[in-house]
Here is the input.
Amino acid sequence: MHFDLQTLIKTFGYPLVWGIVFAESGLLVGFLLPGDSLLFIAGFICSLAKTGLDIRVMAFGCFVFAVVGDSVGYYTGKRFGRKLFDKEDSKFFKKKHLIAAEEFFDLQGKTAIILARFMPFLRTFAPIVAGIAAMRYQTFMQYNVVGGFVWAIGLTSLGYFLGKTIPPEQIDHYLLPIVLGIMFISLAPSIFHILKAQQRTKN
Here is the structure.
């Protein structure tokens, strides 16, 4: 997948990356998108010569669209509230992810808005749960901005600086393991949390 992302990002540039970041943060289908690896690869591509992509523009845009996306998720939860729990499962919506996000939110409190940024599935549903729980929007935005900054700026910058460090002829040897490592690190907390929640349900 990382080679496909490289090609797509080089072809469509900022709008593609920012659109995916927004969709993953603000739309119910966002959990299907490759957020963490996307940000890393976007930063990595900005480090390459002749791409025409500026890391400062890329990172700032990702931050803005991440914050806006979470705000949309918040208002989705506030507007539709508990009706989402009555929604039938479909290919693009699984109620279990919303329930897992609610449990994570109850466990971690306000910091769930920040922590969920680095956890697929929860990243999409945490702001929705914050809206359902009627968290004050000013409070939500404080955590939303912090989480969006650390996630968007941090991962794109990591990709950029590693791209500047790795010799061009060795890029293919390092990029795939790094992307796979990021995907594993991102998925592991979500899987652990879901399994733990299922265990508590059984008990």
Observations:
- The chain has one domain: 2-202.
